[in-house]
Amino acid sequence: MSDYTKYKDSRPLTEALQGRNLEGFANSARAGTLEQSKQYHNLTNKDKIGVGTYPAKLFTDWPMWEYRPWTKWENIVACGKNSNREFLRGLLSLLREENCHPLVRSCSFLGFPCVFIVVPGFSEIYMPGQMKAKAIVTTRMVRRSFDHFPELTAAEEKRLMTGCTIRPW
Asked: Which end of the chain is more exposed for a tag (fewer CB within 10 A), N or C?
């Protein structure tokens, strides 16, 4: 479970489509080879923001994994509480069995019962490397330029325009 690359191509399309219409997704994602979908920059785009190249076999009639519905409701139903809290306990138990150490934050301040779960070694998709380092430097420079807005030097204005430009695929 801690090996993200083993499971990355099985990531549900529902994650990529959350809050988006199908036409918008079709304009920002494309089918490609498995090799194209494994490229470093594509992993970040595809798995964090839902755009990029997806393996073409993901869109075929036959799934590349076996669908197994959730069957571990016994503990929740046996307690007589079909509650989120019991479900969370069961989920955390499964993660601990896989030798994961999940971190849970209550997000009930949003006005409904929910939690944010981070599983170290599994949740992080931004892998260290040259592209990540370049992205950090670029965004840091853009953020510093915002500090002087609207009084910008020519270099700061160019940096802001470059950093905020949406590039077509």
From this structure: C
Considering the domain architecture, whether residues 103 and 134 belong to the same structural domain is answered as no
Tell me how far apart the alpha carbons of residues 51 and 16 are, in angstroms, rounded to a whole number.
7
Instruction: Mark whether 15 and 43 lie in a shared domain.
Output: yes
Six-digit token pair at 106? 């209550």
List per-block mean pLDDT (blocks of 10 residues) for the chain, which spans 169 residues.
47 58 68 74 67 73 72 62 71 85 85 80 65 72 74 81 57
Helix (H) or strand (E) holding 147: helix 130-147
Q: Is residue 135 part of a domain?
A: yes
Full domain range(s) for residue 156: 130-164
Report the Cα 19 to chain-centroid distance in Å.
Answer: 14
**What's the CA gap between 152 and 158, in Å, rounded?**
9
Contact 131, 41 (CB under 8 A): yes
Same domain? 10 vs 53: yes
Q: How many domains does the chain have?
A: 3
Q: What is the rounded CA–CA span in Å between residue 47 and residue 49?
A: 6
Does the residue 66 lie in any domain? no
Q: Report how far residue 47's alpha carbon sits from residue 55's, in angstroms, rounded to the nearest whole number.
A: 13
- The amino acid occupying position 160 is L
CA–CA separation, 169 vs 164, rounded Å? 15
